[in-house]
Structures are given as structure tokens and as C-alpha cells.
Amino acid sequence: MIVAGIDVGGKNVHVVILKDGVVAAQGAAATGIQKAEAAERLYEETLRKGGLTRKAVGRVVATGSAGKRVAFADACIADAAADARGVHRLFPSARTVIDIGAEEGRAIKISPEGKVLDFAINEKCAAGTGTFVEAMAIALEISVEEMAAISLKSNTSIPMNAQCAVFGESEVVSLIHQNVEKQDIAKAVHDAIAGRIASVARIVGLEKDVAVIGGMAKNDGFIASLRKEMAMDIIVPNDPDFVGALGAAEAAAKGVLEEKIAAKVIGQEIVEGEKTS
Amino acid sequence: MAKYKTKGLDCWKRAKELRNRYYKDYKESPSRGGLRWEGGAWSFDAIPQALEGEVHGLSEEPYGASIAHNPELQVRYQEAAEGKWGCARDLCSYMRAYWGSVALNEYAYGGPWPHADFIFQNQICCCHSKWLQVADEIDGGTTPYFCFDVGVGPYDKIGDRQIEYVVAQLYDGIAFIERVTGRRIIEEKLIQNVYNTYRSNCYWAKTCELNQAIPAPLDEKTMFSLYVLGTLEKSNQAIADFYEKELYPEVKDRVANKIAAVADERCRVLGDSQPPWGFLKIYRYLEQYGIVSVANLYTFSLIGWMKVDEKGHLVPYPTLEEQGITIKDRDHALRLLVEGELKGKLMWAPFYGATYKNDLVTKIAKQWRCDAAIIHLNRGCEGTAQHQMQLKIALQEMGIPVMTFEGNMADEREFDEGRVLRLIELFVSETLGLKKVA
After folding, report:
1. Given an 8 Å threshold on Cβ–Cβ distance, is B430 in contact with A84?
2. How many structural domains does chain A have?
3. Which domain covers residue A187, as residue numbers?
4. pTM for this structure?
5. Partners of A192 in beta bridges
6. Are A68 and A98 members of one domain?
7. How confident is the model at residue A124 (pLDDT cuts 50, 70, 90)?
């Protein structure tokens, strides 16, 4: 069976296509403003990359903040649910998932079966998200990749505000004017975000194994800061930004249904949920 | 086919009439030689409403909530308040909406801002006494103002000293009102008002108790429109009659006949704090999953009086009739009023620590048979938003799944509808494992 997962985030869209449970193709692109169109384009590209056609795909599940815009998806699942499924597939021992994307940071507690038990979101604030790092990189006049690399060279701790991306940027500018080394400022930024993200994660409880995913997980400087802040080891998968899409593809493969697909495929009234204890 | 029978409340229309009349009377009072006063929902309205002649009050929080039901109006009023002094957005959002209304010289129920003849207020949280002081400054700064202190301790620490402290202030308040209005407080009116206050508060609590039934006869969205009458004027005869003689019997009948608020009830949810008033549709969204919000310390105790019985259960506070008490005179009336308010209104308790809130809310969760909790981290009200994260832990330790969402009861700029609906969908579909009912 061929299934696809599409994660349409605030900044980027990711597609993962599974063929009989194995990743057959994957792709990533910037979403821009036209998110639905970007998802469509990337899906087509990824299919071509895998030598597949649309017809061959049995089921498509979307996720992400703009997942519902993917009109051709058979279902849409919440991003935290996709994260849980993706991490569970990669690391069945994981019990805490931290996903830091462009616009949202979240911590998710998952069961041994990969079900979402609890979650906490870094709501309505860019501080503690990828956007914060990008803004600081711009202030430092370097790329995010360079910022990650140079921060690892610093041994200095400079306390920095991570409650507000705007104030954070002002602080960076002040540090620049004080002739603080860029590597030290870069580390300070990462330490500040790590502190904020760890606080969010502690709301759900830090239970091992802890997996960090999302675009920010590619930032080695941030990951080093987070490991230190949480005083525990963390797992970072290869291609951490694809885990949401992978989870959506897993959901497609395991037959997680929205009401649309239930009516279409099964042809019955949708299955009522069971009362939980 | 739906699981349970359901129908609307027969007394719904009456509730709306009473509410509309309240706001109309406040506006029109002077035209009939009546007086107006401003105060809070917890302002012991039995006292000013005992003045001779016609008198009507405007309680500030429900007025703020009325504004908040209209997202466009609330933003306009918020911005007017901020424009006046640049007041901080972390202040009470009801208060800012109220200030905006005064600053714009608009009454949300039509016409210019209706000036009050006096202010009778109590200090129940970080802003209440300043609220109307500032409102009066915007309004010209000429309104006589009296505020009394009720920060005497939680319900289980109320004794004669605490009651005496508040009663003494009320005597000062009576002297103040009589002086500034030139009218007398009529003892018979005061006594009847205290009987009515007990009836309103106790029968609302009894009505809330009925929501322990499965299926729940009421959903929280409906309850908001019902408790509000007690926040307007709990000492009012018509309002007390409504609670005792119309609402409570009807809800009791619904329980007896298994008439549900939500026909497909399959999951009972506990709330906390006020809702985001401009987005009550989230309750209807939950109903698509057979989820009914049945309980909330705020919804119960904003006016409902309860007590913890000898078994540690929350039960309605008894009316004066049930206690076999006949009010003898003014002093007796004031003492009974204060005793009921301080001992019965459990909403004071969270101001004294997380332990109190956790204890009360976990009792509610158990007694009202809640399966999950959805907590509104209400940026607009520090009082009700106290201890919410401790509460989350306490509920989770009981085995109750909990989700939180950030919002603001009366400032729609701080409510992200799309994001909240996504979070609710995640919680409902993943954590609770529910699908939409066909």
C-alpha cells in the first residue's frame, strides 16, 4: 500500500510517501502565502521523485497548522498527533516529544502506544520558536546554520530575555554594541530558547526518552543548550523536520479516519467515540 | 438516533426578559424619579436596593461580559480605554471594556453613558475598588463612592470576628448611602432583600447540583445565561422567584425525565474560569463530539452558595427558610447577609491559595462525574485564573485528562480561535479518543 503524509506548517511544507511501510520519497519546500498551492506542488514533485502517480496513492493524511487547506487529503490530523505517531515509529521508547517549528513550540507526552496523553504549547509568542532564532540571526547578520555552528564554540553564559522576540532582538543589538563575540551571543540565544522550551516541556513532565523534532532540531547549537538545560540526553532523529509528515503518513497507513473518509470508504454512519474514564 | 431526549428550557424567555429589563431599568430609572448606583456582582446589592423609592444598580462584571459577547464592540471599547491613558492590557478585561464604554460615553444597551448617583462597591480582587474609582474619574469625578473590604479569609475560617468586621463596614455604608442620596434604607425592604439573596444564591446552587445527573440537564453555555441574573441583582424578588419557582423546578423535572442538555452526551467536561465570551461557539463545537461542559467552580459559585458537608461533599447552602430562621431586624439581616456571602460563596476561597481551589475543584470533578477538563487560561481575569496550572496537576493526579488553552474573557485580540479549535480537536480526538457524532 502506498500512503502519503503532508505537513503544512507556518513556514514549510513536508511530504513523506510510504510504500509498504518504507519511505519511498520525501520532499520539503517553503509554503509562502499560498499554502494549499505549495502543498499541491510539493506533493506532485515528491511523487515524481519516487516514480509514483497520484492514482497509486491509497490514502493521504495532512497535518500542520494549515493541514486543513490540503483539499485533496482524505483526512487531517492534529499536528501533535502526527508528531506522536512519527516519533513512535522511529523511537518506540520515547515518552516525551518536543517539536519546535517556525511558529509554535510544543511538548507532548505520549503513551507506550504512541497516543497523545498530554500536551503544552508555547502559545502566541515567537520567543521559543524557529522564528525567534531567525530574527536573532538576522540581527547578527549571519545565517541560522552559521549561528548554530559558532554557538558551539562558546563557553560563555550570558542570560538573555526569551519572553519576547522583540525584546530579545533589542538585547542582541545591545550585546553587539558591547562588542560581545557573535559566538557568545549565538549561544545566549540558544540558551534562552532552551530555557523557554524546557519550561513548556516540564508542564507535561520530562519522561525519558525525550525526542526533539521540527526544524529547530537541526540546530546543533540549540540542541546542545537544550541538553544542558534539561540535564538529560535527548534523541534527535535524522530529518527531524519530516517527522510530522511521517506521522501523518503512518496515520494514513494505519487507517486513522476523519468523518469524510469514514463516510466515503466505509459507507456507514461514523463510528461513535467511546466514553473515556 | 440520539441517545437522550432534549429540549430547550421553558423558562429561557423569562430569563431573557429579566435581564433585558434590568439594563432598561438602569437606563430609565431617573425618568421615573429613581436612583442609579454602580457596584460589582458581589456588592451585597441587598443594601442599596433597600433604599426608599425606585433604585437600580449596574453591576460591572456582567456589563463587561455583555460587551464581550460582541467581539467588535469589545475591541472598540478596549482600544478606547487604552487610548485614554495607555492602560496596560494585562489589567482585567471587563474593567477595560467598562472604562472604554464610559470614555466613549456609550451605554452598550443604547444611548449615552448613564451616570450613577453613587457607587457601592466591595474589594474582592486586585482591581475592584479601583475599577469604579477610575470609571468615575472618566465620568467627571463627582460620583460619591463607598467601598468595603471583604478579604477576611476563606469559608472555613469565618467566625464572629470576620462577620463583625464586615457588618461594621456595612453600617458605615448605609450611613453613606443615606447621606449622599437623602433617602433612607427601609428595614422591611432590607429584610426581604436578604431573604431574596439567600433564595437566589441557594437555588442556583441547587440547580447546579442537579447537573450531577446523567444526562446533565444543563450545559455550561446555557448556564451562563442563567447565573447572570444573580450577578445583576440577587436581592431582586423577581429574580429570586425565577430561581426558586421557575428554573429549579424545571431543571428538576428534566432530571426526573432524563431530558439532556446534549442529546448525545458521552463525555462530561469540567471548565475553569470565565469562557472567552465572544467565542462561545466552542461549546457547540464540543457538542458535535457528544461532549457537554457540566461543571465549573466559577459558573457555580459566582453566585451559587455551597458548603462542604460532614462527609466532605459540596452541597447547596441552606436558605433561611430551610434553616428555620426568621429575620428579626436590620442588624440580624446584615449579619445573615454577611454570613451567607462569606461562608457560602466558595469563589472567595481561591484567593487564599491553590490548596483551596484544588480541593473545591477536585470535589466538583468527582461529584459531577467529569471525564475530562478543559481549562481556559484566562488572561483577562487574574482572580479566576489563579492556580490553574496547579489545578491541572491535581486533576491529572485524579486520572482526569486536562487540556488548557490561552485566551481572554473580554479581549478578543487575545483569543486565537483557529488555534484553540485545533487544540480542542487534538485533545478530543487523540487524548479522549472521541469522534464526531453522526
Report:
1. yes
2. 2
3. 93-236
4. 0.88
5. none
6. no
7. low
